[in-house]
Amino acid sequence: MKHQINNKLPDEEWEMLKALAKGELATDCPTCGKSWDLSHLVTKDPISPTTLATRFLIEKIRDEFSKAQFGGRRP
What we know:
Number of domains: 1
Helix content: 40-55%
Strand content: under 5%
Number of helices: 2
Order of helices and strands: HH
Largest sheet: none
Distance between the termini: 27 Å
Radius of gyration: 15 Å
Structural class: mainly alpha
Shape: globular
């Protein structure tokens, strides 16, 4: 079973998320316009920004739970 969480992001973070979701197709920073190469990050193929946000949220929840479970230390 999956649960839905509705969340609002500030414009700047939304633009960052969209750029990361573009993968290798993102050629410049959405906040400063500087050229960049994201081929080594997150994803090579473009995916939906909401799918990427879900991946990030799951990863962060698991990380924080693990830290709490092991007294602030990761296993």
